[in-house]
Amino acid sequence: MLTGNGRFTVKNKYVLLLAVIILLVVILGRCDTDNEVTVDQVDVMAKVMADGDLYVEELFTYTVQGEYERIPRFMDNFGGANIEFFEAYVPPSDRELGNFGYAHLERYPVSLKTKSGTYYIQLDAKDETRQIYYRYRLDREAVKYDDRGELDWSALKADRMDHHNVTVTVYTEQPAKETLSGFIYDRSGGSLTEINDRWVKYENALLPEGDRARLKLFIPSEVLSKMESAEPSAIFSERLLEEQKLQQRYAERERFLKAGQHISRWLTYAAIVGIFYYALSLRRIFSWWSGRRIRFEDLAAMDPIDLMYYFRKGTFRFADTLAGVFSLHRRGMASVSIVQSGMRFQEDSRAPKRLPEFTFTGKRTDLKKSDRYLLSWLSHGTAVLKLENFSGPTKTERKNKKFMGKYIERKRKLKEGLRRWQELLDSENSKRIQYREYTARKVIIPAMALIHLVLLIYMYIADVTPWGWVVVLAAILGGVVVLASIRWRRKKYMFTFLVVCFFVAAPILYDPLVDEYLNFVILSFLLVGFLPRGVLDRRSEAYRSAIKRYRRTLAGGGHDVGRAGNDRKWLEKMREDALLLGVGERFMRNISKANPEFTFSEASPLFDNDVDAALDYVFIHSWKGINEETTLGRTWKSDSDSGADSGADGGSSYDYSSDGGHDGGSGDSGGGGD
């Protein structure tokens, strides 16, 4: 749609689709960088103290490419109160890890960023391999029960980078009288390689970014000799059985995720079939082929109301009332002139200073019922239609709140008038233009949303996500599914849901499934975009296809037949149609280039350079932010639910464009499926 400064916008669905494509490029694309830190090796020695504290010594080996002044060490508990201290040193060469201590060691400055749970080690490193020794103590990390003690500790969480060659050894300060029992939970294939009465050892060749190594250790109570016993939630055998069941879920995790991958693949195929069905339907192909045989002369001679009725699929917007005014003008029942705007516009810096004004010159008894109603409604019973009477508040008036009630009421009355005019047109056009809502969307969109919800929940269950988080995820996504299903006429809700699905699926640590599912999300975007809002009969669909081609011709400066000889009648018709179809400025710009010697304002006052900006201001910009039931700044519809897939952005004009760039149309055009 064209604005006063020459910009145009496209329908919401295309904007959202473009946003998703950009999002994919940003998220999935790899940006080259000269600076990078990799974790080549991690060795951890953790001692369970008799008082339940956990004393940890870690040796990280980093490879630094480029220059770094600090290196992050993420802590899973966000720098919580149970961290008694956290220190970083240059590792000694004369001691073994576990006995490094801190005496006579060079210490690095450390700062904590609590919100991210990250300690930053201050150092200067450039293109080198650097080792850092960390030591910290976690207060009461273990818990003691009468039958057994427990340590539930996330030894490592690869928050921002992969961790290679990981070894974690957990041992007790005091020897145990029996073999320890331990379980390790990660999603990258790590395992416990040693378990005895003194220690357990965990090894993993690669702990990828986003994964963590959670260790659950059952230790004899006598090892925690300096702790008081707590009351357990269950006996030891039940707690042990619970961990064994969880371990079994981890063991079966990959099998279930592979099944999800196959499901996503078949759903992707189904989405592709749906896209081809709607994009290349017989109805669309027929309308395109039949529309190409409709001549320019037939379109230019068409009544403006019929032109917009075809183009809008029977659902008018407020600015489409101009079609009724232009219809009267072509029949010689109304004249147009350019006049000075009223005082409130003259006093406002942003308001137009000159406006089109239409004067009725015929007999009302000669008009159809819809024409009489339009004239009475817009001219308030007079013979003059002043556009200023339909605008919202000026910038000056917005500063005074007492004016807002007046304009909210004006908007309500204008919407009611539009609805009544639409009803009269529907009754008059019922035999000529057959239009019906594409009700299959009522089934397709809720079904698609439900499929995505079920698949996402399955993915998270298969990925061994805690049940509490699964319930929260299901509740949040379920609410969005319900909203998208209730508002099935408005594609933006489904688009929003798919964007949420995109981000929700990304953290799953199984790339084959995530990649397959994201393909399904992208294709779902396309499928929703191709779902028609409504369908016309074949004849009407052919005319709509021709009108969309005609619109592109007008944007390029009009048809050669219309420009031939600078016939004022043809020029004025093209100018009116260009204004109605939202390409007024482009039409003026290109037709002026083609014939710079001709003074187009002599053909019609509508060729005045101020007309586009004036209509843009009256119908769109003056109403921005004035809310009644719908949000202004979007173009009004005669039905608040119909056609809500398109709208205007902050700088938009009266967009009449639903043109997808093909003669047969796209998106909301009535292709197939009925």
TrEMBL record:
Residue span(s) of domain DUF2207: 39-214
Keyword Transmembrane helix appears in the UniProt entry: yes
Pfam short name (any one): DUF2207
TM stretches of this protein: 266-286, 443-461, 467-486, 493-510, 516-536
Region (Disordered): 634-674
InterPro entries recorded: DUF2207 (IPR018702)
Extent of Low complexity compositional bias: 641-659
Alphabetical keyword list: Membrane, Transmembrane, Transmembrane helix
Stretches with biased composition (Gly residues): 663-674
Entry protein name: DUF2207 domain-containing protein
